[in-house]
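Hi L.,

You mentioned the student needs an example of a multi-chain input paired with its predicted structure. This one should do, with 815 residues in total across all chains.
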Amino acid sequence: MQTDLIQEARRQAEICNACRYCEGYCSVFPSLHANRAFSDGDITQLANLCHNCRGCYYACQYTAPHEFDLNLPAALAEVRHDSWEELAYPSVVARQFQKNGMAVAIAATLCFAVLFALAKWIGLREGEGFYAVMSHNLMVAIFAPAFLFPLASLVVSLRRYWSTVDGKPVTFNHIKQAFGAVANMRNLAGGHGDGCNFEDEDRFTQARRTAHQLVLYGFLLCFASTSSGTILHYVFDLPAPYGLFSLPKLLGIPGGLMMTFGAIWLFHLKLKADPELGAKAARSGEFGFIALLGFVGFSGLALYGLGATTLMPVILALHLGSVLAFFLLTPYTKMAHGFYRLAALVRDAQRKGA
Amino acid sequence: MNNLYDIVVIGGGNAALCAAMTAAEDGAKVLILEAAPKAYRGGNSRHTRNFRCMHSGPLGPLIESYSEEEYFADLMKVTDGKTHEGLARMAIRRSEECLPWMESHGVRFQPSLSGTLSLARTNAFFLGGGKGLVNAYYRTAAKLGVDVEYDAKVTHLEVEDGKVVYLDYVQGEQTHRLAPKAVVVASGGFQADMDWLARAWGPAAKNFLIRGTPYNRGVVLADLLEQGVEQVGDPTQCHAVAIDGRAPKFDGGIVTRLDCVPFSIVVNKNAERFYDEGEDIWPKRYAIWGRLVATQPDQVGYVIIDAKSLELFMPSVFPPIKADTIEELAQKMGLPADGLRDTVDTFNAACGDTTGFHPTDLDGVSTSGLTPPKTNWARPITQAPFYGYSLRTGVTFTYLGLKVDDAAQCSMGNLPVRNLWAAGETMAGSILGKGYLAGFGMTIGTVFGRIAGKEAAKYAN
Ligand SMILES: Cc1cc2nc3c(=O)[nH]c(=O)nc-3n(C[C@H](O)[C@H](O)[C@H](O)COP(=O)(O)OP(=O)(O)OC[C@H]3O[C@@H](n4cnc5c(N)ncnc54)[C@H](O)[C@@H]3O)c2cc1C
Ligand code: SF4
Ligand code: SF4
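Structure written out for the whole complex:
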């Protein structure tokens, strides 16, 4: 990992450790205050615990022009992004995508193209609805590896992370605590519950926390929708299309709406937030990722809305292309943050238990 | 002349903001003139972490209770009785209603910080510290219609026939004149004016560091005192602590504090000890070390500890100077090596049984036959590596100020100045003659800021 980034974060952490005024904002400070000296692994762990709520920037009496030049949210964001690149498997791929929205767009376009080509080439065949465009088996043949490979890659990365931060054997209780913190995004609540400072300088708002949870829960609903479809298909021999009151639709429609709306909101908030308080170099990659995420949700909804029209094949290819790109890029884009964050929260639960 | 505003509040720290919000809530049109640019707004208040609050039962982050009598007794102890009892009791009593008021004006509290458990009952800590508090107040003030000018240094208040008739302030190159109906002065002490400090303290003061804002230069204070507005306090009295000698000249704030003195020996630049390092637990002694260091040659001290004490105190902002031998440490710190060796050897020889050593209690582990003695935590300095810090005097605030009555009003002769009120550090001398109780500064600012705002609004309406 880049030692200069870690060194800068360490310099700032040492100042915070002598100050402690921000202790109540988030999980980072209690963890920071438990140390006297910070190894590279400690700094990586703190960086991945940080949710970039920015509370500790606006409350800091030592921000520039003060000579101590504190900007902990940015210092930790730089280390965090660097750690995602470094720990990714293979890390050269992450270097292409984490910082580069254009690369994300190109990858997505390529996926669209592949799907279009496949649809055209293998072409129309018997079957109803979507499977008239593409057989279910073909979809599985493409998506199963596209799903499993990123998963395998993430497993490698998380193992690397775990050894970097000196993780201990995980218990159910650790996991429960970590999921608890994610479920209500406690670390974007500011300690007092008023929210974070992402939107409008030092004003605390719930905007980012709410938008993030819309995307998170929307994504989970969509995932559940797809899974329920798979189960219906294989276990109950009930292939798509499904009616409005079927499980896949009941989960998928609100999920798609939440994801789309949440992503637009996050995009908008990111435009408003001060780039100096994040990892500046990673901005375009983050925008690219949010756009892709939003497009997955939106094209899924469009597919439902326009599924009976002649536009269906085009939308299907776009939707499946975006899903494909999304899956494939998961270990190499901002999407990976969820996995690292969870690991960091599990590690923090261990520290608290220790 | 601009008469747009009913009330002008001079200063942009806690006391000023409390006054401005209160006055605006009572219907006055208020302008804050803050000498600092926006990035440095909030004076010393931006460096604070808590305020001391009376409470008859658990209140917000505060546990158990803290009675008026106990609070007042604590105050009397640190001021050697030099306390204005009436005003002090009023501030104490009203501190209880301040906490909910602060919350309703945007301040958020947090549990006592790690390393400060001894204050969990008496002091309520601000989430994010004083800058978090100040930010919240500026937001609330803006909602209440208070206007703020930054970079606006008030230079003069014209007092005529017991009344302020106008005031001047400089912003950029330009001087502006305002004639509000009432004025609240909340512009702090004069500690950032090194010349004034030197006049009061002698040339040694040039070597002092200022822990807080460089903008509290006492300009308004001097202007009013010159015109005969009633003064209180002694110009030589200031709150000063010993801080890391490498701290910046201004605005080093809380992180430059060093908590290692009780586990150390402290020498001057001639490598001689000069005071009992183990006299009492550190929170009770850290305020006297500012003065002790101030009276040493070049106003500097050097703390020496060994490896076994390194982790007994809160981490320092700058790493200690480290060496494998006492001689090497002396050389790195610019001290006479033989002298330091002698002092350490003499000290070590005077140490006795250290089995009773207990870092957080007065343990009575003392030296014998040594002058000055070390009466607690006296363990020989023997275990390499050795560590050292330099110490300088860090001034927190000065006591000389404006004398106010229980309505926060200033006076001239024996008559009140009809439209002039003062709050915060600039009038704290009216309550405390000397000494200081942690967290009382913000209590005074909040209580008297609110009173001043209320009275000024009453007058202006
Ligand atoms: C490092 C440090 C830590 C502290 N910690 C605590 C603590 O935890 N609890 C506590 O109770 N106290 C603490 N204190 C003391 C506390 O800061 C003060 O008692 C309190 O902030 C005083 O508030 P104030 O509003 O009177 O002054 P300040 O907050 O100092 O405000 C004065 C304001 O006046 C402005 N000003 C000055 N001159 C002019 C002018 N000519 N024209 C216009 N504006 C002017 C300044 O820019 C500033 O905004 C601490 C002090 C320091 C230095
Ligand atoms: S960010 Fe600033 S105010 Fe917060 S703990 Fe660190 S140094 Fe203190
Ligand atoms: S940005 Fe927020 S989450 Fe990150 S360290 Fe600061 S307060 Fe904690």
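You could point out the following to them. The first helix of chain B runs from residue 14 to 25. The interface with chain A takes residues 39-40, 46-47, 49, 108, 110-111, 113-115, 126-132, 135-136, 139, 248, 251, 253-255, 257, 311, 314-317, 319 of chain B (CB under 8 Å).

Best wishes,
N.
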